[in-house]
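Usage

Read records sequentially. Each one opens with the input sequence:
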Amino acid sequence: MKNSLFAVKVHHLVYFSSLALLLMGCTSVKKMSLVHELPQETALPSYPEFIIEVGDELSIFVTALDPQAAAPFNVETSHQVQLDGTIDLPILGRVVVEGKTLKEVKNIVLSLVSENLQNAFVNIYFTSASIFVLGEVGNPHKMDISKPITILSAIGAAGGLTRNARYDQVEVIRTKGNKMNKYIVDLTSPELVQSPCYYLTKGDIVNVLPKYSVLVK
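and closes with the structure output:
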């Protein structure tokens, strides 16, 4: 229990430290209410994993104690997930990957490779995973990511919030299949850690709304 409570306290410390860095210099401290009454215990969100979808690009590289024996598996290392949810691997043929995590695909490929190659290792990662951070941030841009990232980290990497940013009104647009969902996130709320948007996933669009609209003549 002590370890659990310690983890919660550390998590809150990281949360508010990150938030303070985002908001520092954005507006007057007197106008901001960043300190909230925290519950004694908070269930921390589990760390998510990317789910492979049609159109994703994966890099798969096979290694072994004998590099020459592994070379035929690496004639092509970049693979795009086809409409049928498969990728076509040298020697191994088509492998279904849609709906699976990188870890699951890694285990499948390793099992297939091991039938032909001893002491093999498989490295796999996304080559096309990215998010967009737009609106009232210092440097709006597309951001390549190799794993899920927190919304606070993403905004921080985009230069933090501007003075005109609404830190209680941040849109997150998420597409899953043929459906698009829009969430409104309050960065100052302790409940942010329980939000489905606390961790951003590939393809997410973060749009920080402005306090005031600027009319352009």
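Summary fields computed downstream for this record:
- The first strand starts at residue 57 and ends at 64.
- Residues 57-126 form a domain with the wza like fold fold (CATH 3.30.1950.10).
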